[in-house]
Amino acid sequence: MYKVGRCKLSDRLKDADLSQQQLSEMCNIPKSQISEYVNNKHIMSIETAKNISDCLKCTIEDLYEFNTVADDDTL
């Protein structure tokens, strides 16, 4: 089992040499929402993660750290 960890969007933006504003425009997502993901205030929906990963030419798994948890731990 996995639990979503730290958002790695900031790393992906650096790799792509893009700003949060540029990604916002590319994906039609408010910059404030991008900032909330970068600062781990909110976790992306699967739809948003797919759209962002497509814009950044990476996988959804590249956007977050995924931590393993024991089967009896609550997610």
Counted by DSSP, the helix tally is 4
- How is the quaternary structure best described? single chain
Strand order of the largest sheet: 1-2
One letter per element, helices H and strands E, the order comes to: EHHHHE
Number of strand segments: 2
Give the strand content. Answer: 5-15%
Uncertain runs: none
Q: Strand count, sense and closure of the main sheet?
A: 2 strands, antiparallel
Separation of the first and last Cα atoms: 9 Å
Radius of gyration: 13 Å
Identify the overall geometry. Answer: elongated
- Estimate the helix proportion, in percent: 40-55%
Chain-averaged pLDDT: 94
- Given helix and strand content, the structural type is alpha+beta
What characteristics describe this protein?
2 strands, alpha+beta, 75 residues, 4 helices, two-stranded antiparallel ribbon
Describe what you observe in this structure.
With 75 residues, the chain is of the alpha+beta class. The protein contains four helices and two strands, in the order E-H-H-H-H-E. Helix 2 crosses helix 3. The termini are close together. The model has no long low-confidence stretch (mean pLDDT 94).
